[in-house]
Structure formats: structure tokens, C-alpha cells
Amino acid sequence: MLKVINVVGARPNFMKVAPIVAAMKQRPTDFLPLVVHTGQHYDASMSDAFFTDLDLPQPDIHLGVGSGSHAAQTAAVMERFEPVVLNEKPDWVLVVGDVNSTIACALVCVKLGIKVAHVEAGLRSRDRTMPEEINRLLTDQIADLLFTPSQDADQNLLAEGIPQTRISFVGNIMIDSLFKNLERARLSKIKADMGLSDGEYAVLTLHRPSNVDNRETFERILTALETISVRLPVIFPVHPRTRKTIAELGLTDRIAATKKLRLIDPLGYLDFLNLYSTARLVLTDSGGIQEETTALGIPCLTLRENTERPITVELGTNVVVGTDTQRIVSEAMTILEGPVNRDVRHPPLWDGHTAERILAVLRELQLSDKL
Ligand code: UD1
Q1: CA neighbor of 129 nearest in space, from 248, 242, 217
Q2: 12 lines ligand 1 (CB under 6 A)
Q3: What is the pLDDT of residues 32-50, one digit of tens each?
Q4: Which of 36, 206, 249, 261 has the highest local Cβ count within 10 Å?
Q5: Per-residue pLDDT tens for 108-138?
Q6: Is residue 131 lining ligand 1, measured as CB closer than 6 Å?
Q7: Which is the closest atom of ligand 1 to the Cα of 244?
């Protein structure tokens, strides 16, 4: 029996941990999973909604950390997670993604000699001004086991001197949640409630500090949205960070004047899946949404200068357009004026079975006593 602590902290973690915990619960003789929520995200719409939508069991332990500076948040997670690990003595701690909770919990574990595995390892934007890039680099250096979503990630890790024995290419865990919930998501009423028809609207998400905390960049994006929204409604579920900076930067009136740019509260997993899965176009600065749109063949424009997920550009539907107004508009128009193309190509092992492969590796290591 392997006792495994599965760490969740922020919104993009929940859909990565849910399929792993579900798979462990199906094998109660082999795995005892615990869920620890750091509380990095705490709003009902950023956290609770995902437990319900994803059938993720309520956290066994909630650390209640909340918001703060990067240092304060990371330190608070570490201080509160350490006694949990000492008390529970897990065989493994699983951390996912690249948020502050990921590095904080991984660091606690290595210092205590508790084995830690990183799911979604090896992604690199090569942009060290991104807080997530630092979290990825450090977590991968210290974790015992690195589960990668794509083979470019393996190459990144090997190039950083990480031995092959610590790396396991298992595929993309987010796609497990996506495939599992696609049917359920069709029952969502979000489009009917908003009066939207399939293929006749765009979806926008925006929350990176480099985009929304910077007036010039935010305004360049907004100018592009003013043009695009003349063509079709743009539905914008607004992250709390973005909601705050819109007010702080004095952009509220300008946005309100852009009639077909429709701001709504953050959506739960199923409503959001329902919404983007029939969008004509998605514009985003999120990492995960680049992958989800690729898996469904929905055109995606990434409003960043780089991506840590190059496979979504090579094999998927993603185009990295940056934040130049003209470039965003011209790429959007190319898509809107072109044929609707649903020629979906799934990157290798984005097949809905990543959780099973992760469990198989953990079991194999236990049986062979290799790590
Ligand atoms: C975090 C992750 C980012 C991920 C994003 C998804 C890090 C470094 N960043 O960024 O990788 O893409 O989550 O959402 O870990 N807030 C609320 N309610 C909440 C959560 C946050 O109001 O439930 C507000 C707070 O004012 C907070 C701000 O949003 O200060 C930012 O939250 P934080 O967790 O620090 O970073 P995110 O921008 O959400």
C-alpha cells in the first residue's frame, strides 16, 4: 500500500489531481490517497466549484494559506505543509503544475527526505520573468520523479542534467479530465443562459501579471478586442486578479463601452468546458487552455511572447501571437475568415490514460524498490 499526499493549491491544479485521486481510489489495496489543499486559491468560483465539477473528494487537510506576495505565500505553504508531512509520513507526495504551492510543497519534502513526484514536469518557456518558470525549474531539479506530458519536456530535463532514470513520459493529465467530463459538460446551460450559438462567439481569458498588471500591454490587448468584438461576441470570464487591475488601471468604463466584450465571473470546470468546446476562437494567456483547445481542435491565440507548451503549436491549434494589437487582430481575422477546421491531431499520449500510467510507474518503483 502506498500512502500518497496529492497537493492542490490553485485553480489549474484541480483538474490535474482529480483523475489521479480517482484512479487511486479505484485501487484501494494499492493506494491510500490524501488530498491537501494549500488554500492558495480560496474563492468559491476559483476553488470549491472545481471539487464538485470534477468529483474531487473534499480535502483531507486544508492549509488555508490565501493570498500574499510570492515570498509570503510560498513561505506560508511551507510552514503549514511541513507538520502535515511529518504527521502523515506519506510514501509519496505528488505535486502538479507550476504554481507557488508546487515548489513550496516539493521543497518541504526534499528537506525531510520524503519522496516527491512532479506531474507536468519539464515544460519551459525560457522566460525567467514568469514566476511559473522559476517554480518549474526548481521543482524539477529537486523532485525524485518527473512525469512529463510531452517528449520536448524530456529533452528539456535531460539538457538540464537530470538523469533519464528520474523521468517518465506519461502524457498530459489535463486531457484525462477533459475527456472524462466532455459528455457531462454538454449538459451545462451556460450558452443557453447567455444566448450564445455554437461557433458564433469567442472566449477570452487573461490573468498573467505581465499582461494585466501592465497598463500598456493591457491596453494593446484591449484595442485588439475592440476590433474583434465587432465581428463576434467575446465572452470573458474574469480572474480575480484581472478584475482588480481593471479597476486599478481605470479601464472599467472603456471595457463597458465595448458592448460585445462580455465580462462574467470565473466559471466552474464544466461550464467553462462547455463554453470553449464550441467557441469559434479562444484567446488566452493561460497554459492549460492552450492544451485543452489543442485536444479539441479549437483555434487558440496565445497572448504571450512564448509558450512552455510548444507541442500545441507544432501539433495543435495554438498560435503564439504576443500582445501587439495588429498581430492579434490579423491572426484572429485569418481564423474568422477561414474555413472551420476540426482536424484534431492529438499529441502522443494525450489520450485520457495518463493517470493510469502514473500509478503504474509508482507501483513498479515500489515493487522494484528502485527509488
Ligand atoms: C496563480 C498561479 C498561475 C496560475 C493561476 C491560475 C502562481 C505563481 N501563479 O496565479 O500560475 O495560472 O493561479 O488562476 O502560483 N485571488 C482572489 N481569489 C482567489 C485567488 C486569488 O481574489 O481565490 C486574487 C488575490 O487578490 C490574489 C490574486 O488574485 O492576490 C492573485 O492570486 P495568486 O494565487 O497569487 O496568483 P494568480 O494570479 O491567481
Answers
A1: 217
A2: yes
A3: 999 999 999 999 999 999 9
A4: 36
A5: 999 999 999 999 999 999 999 999 999 999 9
A6: yes
A7: 26
